[in-house]
Amino acid sequence: MAKYLDPKADLTFKKVFGEQKDLLQSFLNAVLPLKEGTEIESLEYLSPEMVPENPAKKYSIVDVRCTDNHNRQFIVEMQMYWTEDFLQRALFNTSKAYVRPLEKGDGYDELRQVYCVSIINDIAFPNLKDEFYHRYVPANIEHPENTIKGFETIFLELPKFRPSSVSDKKMMVLWLRFLTEINEQTKEIPAEMMENEYISKAVGIVEQSAYTDAQRMAYDKFWDEIVSERTLIKGYFRQGHAEGRAEGLAEGRAEGRAEGLAEGLAEGEKKGRAEGMKEGEEKGRKDATIANALSLKKNGVPVDVIANSLGLSIDDVRKL
Predict the structure, then answer these.
(1) Three-state SS for 228?
(2) What phi and psi values does residue 162 have, to the nearest 5 degrees?
């Protein structure tokens, strides 16, 4: 009986989508809202010097980038967990890829359409509890049907995915089932998945027997690092933010109350309390960020990871 590795890991994800053009092409055509006649017919991986810098977490994001026969760019990311800054990061990465090809003297007509597909192994949008597919494009607020062409960002929340929620795209269902159902506990692959040539090929790639002992050790280390990074980034941030916010609110109330009483007027008291609370919250957030950065640094998290996660400069983190 064959045993399998989880395709969401760095090693396996890149073997499936970063080395097999036909599998990546099939996946992109399945999950992207491409109109009939504009499907990807062929693609090429971007060479390293063309790939935009990745200001991401060290272990939590795996990505593959390519361009197709229509001169469009595609970024496919596997995000192992979600924090609020990932949304801004995805938009930054997509927009940077959009403008990157321009050289001095080029016209704007040289810009290429960019699609970013972020596969998230976590809950990113809890307020949209029944939706796993999220499409973002620049749009007119009053008339959202009017969009600006240039780049699109697609978020796929794997924990929310249910095959029954997709009725018109069989290939999308098969690919998302591959990503959600195949792991070390899988004993048998469903027949409908093995009957598809692309999914069957992908399943063969993640069979444990295809990997050396060294590769298996790297695979296991990846999951260990994910657990550590998730614990440090999420755990310390929540703790630091909560403590800082509580302290800031307490100071803000005290300052606002003192200022209001000194003025002796109800209006002054109200204004002082509001301003004091605002200043206190800002101070609390700043203190929480510094405390969180210091804790992460003490626990061995790389300086660039801390800086990108908390919105600090690398120099500020180094000085802590």
Answers:
(1) helix
(2) -135, 130
Name the burial class of residue 97, with classes exposed (0-12), middle (13-18) and buried (19+) by CB atoms within 10 angstroms of its CB.
Answer: buried
Q: Which of 309, 214, 192, 19 is nearest to 7 (CA)?
A: 19
Question: In sequence order, what are the residues at sequence separation of 6 or more whose Cβ sits closer than 8 angstroms to the Cβ of residue 224?
Answer: none
Q: What is the pTM of this model?
A: 0.69
212: Cβ contacts below 8 Å, ≥ 6 apart: none
The amino acid at residue 235 is G
* 49-85 pLDDT per residue, tens: 444 444 444 555 768 889 999 889 999 999 888 877 7
213-230: per-residue pLDDT in tens? Answer: 999 999 999 888 887 777
- The one-letter amino acid at 264: G
Name residues whose C-beta falls within 8 Å of residue 265's C-beta, 6 or more positions apart in sequence: none
Q: How far is CA 262 from CA 8, 268, 270, in A?
A: 60, 9, 12
- Nearest CA-CA partner of 134 in 112, 116, 148: 116
Look at residue 198 and give its three-state secondary structure: helix
